[in-house]
Amino acid sequence: MKVLGIRFCKVSHAADAEGLAAMLGEKGLGLKAADMGEGQEFQGAVFPVGDGEPGRGSWIEIWPAGENMPEMTMLQIVVDDADAWAARAKENGVDVKGPDDAHGERIYYMDGPGGLPIAFQSKAD
What we know:
Layout: E1 3-12, H1 14-24, E2 45-49, E3 58-64, E4 72-79, H2 82-91, E5 97-102, E6 105-111, E7 117-123
Parallel strand pairs: 1-3, 4-7
Antiparallel strand pairs: 1-4, 2-3, 5-6, 6-7
């Protein structure tokens, strides 16, 4: 069982999300955002980091809050086998929800101490 990447996800008011993305981006810290085919309105930003294979590496996600996307900060852990990680967590008494299969990934969810949403996921079969 192996961790393949870490993702940080921040969802906030549109102006805050856009400002954070600008600060992290090429006119701020200099991180290069993935091409999301955006129009005029800010839709969000994903900043891949490291040399990981797409879907396996680490990145930072910044999204504007909306009807189906509440404000939050989330830690996502990319693993080699989400089902095996879920089984281990459940054996250790962790309340794990899922799986959900979305965007080519198998995803499980749990709440960390203090309410931090945590997800771990692997490529779906």
